[in-house]
Amino acid sequence: MTKLFTTTALLAALALPAFAPALAAQPGEGETLAENQDLKFWILDAFKSLDPQLTSSRTDSDMIRQLFEGLLNEDSTGAMVPGVAETWDVSEDGLTYTFHLRDSNWSNGEPVTANDFVYAWRRAVNPETASEYAWFMELMNLVNASEIVKGEKAPEELGVTAVDDKTLEVKLTKPTPYFLKTLSHSTTYPVPQAVIEAEGDAWTQPGKMVGNGAYVLQSHDLGVEAVAVKNDQYWDAEHTIMDEVKFITVNDQNIGLTRYLAGEIDWMNTLPAGRLPQLQQEYPDEAISAPWSCSYAYIFNLSDKGPEELKDARVRQALAYAIDRDIIVDRVLQGGQRPAFNWVHWATEGYTIPEEDWGQWTQAERVEKAKELLAEAGYGPDNPLNLSIQYNTSEDHKKLAIAVQQFWKAIGVNVTLNNYEWKVHIDRLNNQDFEVARYAWCGDYNEASTYLDYFRSGGYNQGKWTNADYDKLLADSATAENPNDLYRQAEEILIDEMALAPVYHYAMAQMIKPDIRGVPLENVMSAWYAKDMYRVAE
Amino acid sequence: MFAYILRRLAVAIPTLLLLIIFSFILMHLAPGGPFSQERALPPQVLANLNAKYGLDEPLWRQIWNYVYGIVVHFDFGPSFVYPDRTVNDLIASGFPVTLTYGTLAFVAAIMVGVSLGVVAAIWHNTWLDYLAVGISIGAQVLPNFVMAPILVLIFTLWYRMLPGGGWSFNDPSFWVMPIIALATSYMASIARITRSSMLEVLGSNHIRTARAKGIPEHRVILRHALKPAMLPVISYLGPVFVSMITGSVVIDMYFSTGGIGKAFVDSALNRDYAVMMGITILVGTLTILFNLVVDILYAWIDPKIRY
């Protein structure tokens, strides 16, 4: 294996400034630390599981990220920085990664070794674990991951080996430009084999759980609150300022906001729709909106079960043009979201979204063009187009669907609205039982391919749109010098064909107490580490 | 009486069994499953999950395994949505919470409701009556999902007297708002039922006789009127008690108590079959039990009733 990249070169390639930003909390000049270093973070629902390989929820990940540490971490801008891996090399063909681990300990004092990663990764793909995130190991393109998930090969054949205690070797099936970006995901975190084997399912309970993160679980009252306190065994404990992280469940956003205002909560990273403008006036230092890597769209069913009318690209274009995104973003959501004329979130790292002509037009021009396109396609007052929009139960989705119904009515399309509860909505999407459906995608990692992969033939692609050129561009991107160029070309095809009607790019409207520092607002994945935060004295 | 109780308990077993079978079938008829999610799972992973939780077996076999597990091991199965917890764990962590605030709210609702109703009936058509009726109508039209945020606003944000949510068995300040919010509308119903029933009893012959005999008014009310007037209240209270102690999704949501009311609704939405079944069985058992208690209380209060 040739050391093609040194770590520094690779870090540079990942757009990391030469002077690496804080790996730990670093108070600035003239900042005095507060006496109490605790963070009270709001969560909407109970944790489902704190087991890194079993969890499938974002909320859980926010806690797991404090309790465990993967090979890499993310900094405040979302760039990858060393975690347990101190340095790493990539082979010339891009298929073998070798990670050199730092000396670090589990919270019970045992050393963290390469074998802990091997155990965890095999556990994630092992059919017996039945992890809902087993697919993540396939996404990483680990050798044999798919075969193991299918039960065709043994978990021991996974492309990850411990060369020695401090060296981890990973083999991929094909070059994967985003591979390093998957390494901060909780599915890839190491877990303590001895503890899991001794305690079984109960190993995630406070007192039993052993982690390698900056914090250890102190208490967990399901659906009420969970507390993690500083882990003295953590390798960078010296630079960890925040002593305690408390996750407080409040199932209602409005009550959560009241409790924030009463001082019971320090950070709420979702606000009720429409509240941000007023809060920004009243609390200019606390009410903030930050981009968040998710996109909202209406997808069209282009499968055999879908309506014939939608198979005409002109119809899809007309429908996409007719949506007045400014009304949706400025009047309905009001949380700093951005109108979307494409699919990939605008703030995705290293990616410039394609400039679509129709994005520059005025809404009146778009509506005009939409009417023309519909007329060309043979629809008009005598032969109106009838469609149904399906959405899942939520006040916001309902408001948007009603708005879109009105926008489409203006170009002569009659829309019926169908509301289903979440599980049914998903089932119908997966079985292509819909015409037009509300959909949203959140990035799994901070790179454009996580969005584009959705529309690949054989991808999740519930509307079953296919395009050979698009597939080829995505396939080629794996080995491309600069994959982002190919991603953009692919997305241009996607939008020309209007496989979906993009609506908006997400933002997180949030309230943060002004004395909390180090919140990574520029990280669009919103991956935060309490170890990088601190409280200043007011 | 003893034979009657035994007979009722004997009937309870097939009733519960039917409840299990019907809920099980209904639940599986609902579209979607515990593992349907936005990003459809690869078929192999789904198959693995189904195999892990026994969902790949025919329905009758699943029901059989389920009932067998309960009867033989008192094991209500694993949760599909909380992979590191069993249904027993979830009920054991949530039920004591709802039982605590539910029972206290129940007692509070009865004490305040009955007093209001009695006062209103005794001083019928006076300002006291109007006040009591006014309070109970006010409480009735103020649903708990309106009440809860208002309470939090007043006691947490404005006066900073009470924590805005959460739960602790050691600190009663966490209990106050859930109790008030849960008890209010029940209190109003109890007050209305007590009032009308009391008015009816006060107008009846035996009260007139009692008064004619010169029995002091407080004894007439407490001994001769209140007891029979309680019959309709008690038949109302049986099911109410069960629904109060098995939690209210609104209370659990707004005060984040971690109770089983929210767990129940979540389990239905998440298709967490085993949790939903577990709580259904709990609620079913309690309902059967307290209906029996109500019937026994009936016989105790009204000597005319014999079983």
Name the shape of chain B in a single word.
Answer: flat
Question: The biggest beta sheet of chain B, please?
Answer: none
For the terminal residues of chain B, how far apart are their CA atoms?
6 Å
Mean pLDDT value of chain B: 90
Radius of gyration of chain A: 24 Å
Determine the strand fraction of chain B and express it as a percent band. Answer: under 5%
Q: Which secondary-structure class do the elements of chain A indicate? A: alpha+beta
Morphology call of chain A: globular
Oligomer: heterodimer
Give a verbal description of the structure:
Chain B: It is found in: Cell membrane. Chain B: It comes from Paracoccus amoyensis. Chain B: It is a multi-pass membrane protein. The complex is a heterodimer of chains A (538) and B (307). With 538 residues, chain A is α+β, with helices and mostly antiparallel strands. Chain A folds into two domains: 263 residues, Dipeptide-binding Protein, Domain 1 (Dipeptide-binding Protein, domain 1, Alpha-Beta Complex), CATH 3.90.76.10; 218 residues, Dipeptide-binding Protein, Domain 3 (Dipeptide-binding Protein, domain 3, Roll). In chain A, the strands form five sheets. In chain A, strands 11, 12, 13, 14, 15, 16 and 17 form a seven-stranded mixed sheet that branches. In chain A, strands 1-10-9-8 form a four-stranded mixed sheet, covered by helices on one side. In chain A, strand 4 and strand 5 form a beta hairpin. Chain A is globular, with a radius of gyration of 24 Å. The relative contact order of chain A is 0.15. Chain B has 307 residues and is mostly helical. Helix content of chain B is 75%, strand content 0%. Chain B is built from twelve helices and no strands. The longest helix of chain B has 36 residues. The radius of gyration of chain B is 24 Å and the shape is flat. The termini of chain B are close together. The model of chain B has no long low-confidence stretch (mean pLDDT 90). The chains are: A alpha+beta (538), B mainly alpha (307). Chains A and B meet through helix 4, helix 7 and helix 14 of A and helix 2, helix 4, helix 6, helix 10 and helix 11 of B.
